[in-house]
Amino acid sequence: MSWTSWTTRGVFAGRGGVKTDEAGPIIGEIDVHTTWTEADGKAHVTVQYSGASEWFTMSGSPVPCPSADGSRLLHDAVLEAVGAGGAATVPRSDVVS
User: What is the pTM of this model?
Assistant: First the structure.
């Protein structure tokens, strides 16, 4: 089984922040983590306040993702969405495939 993950720390969420399933919108400086596994063919995106220990599921996650390379493109698209704010959610994976 193949898997990969990407983490970007210290991303400033734009006005309106990032929407999460567990905590609602979070704002400020956050860390973004994307994990993809071949077994389920999905990318799972979580976020946390920078320096915190608790991770929250970013709304819209998980999303179908065909490959490890696709998960990197998705992670980059998530970073753009986070920077834009507006209660950002995970972009659809077909936007980055």
Answer: 0.93
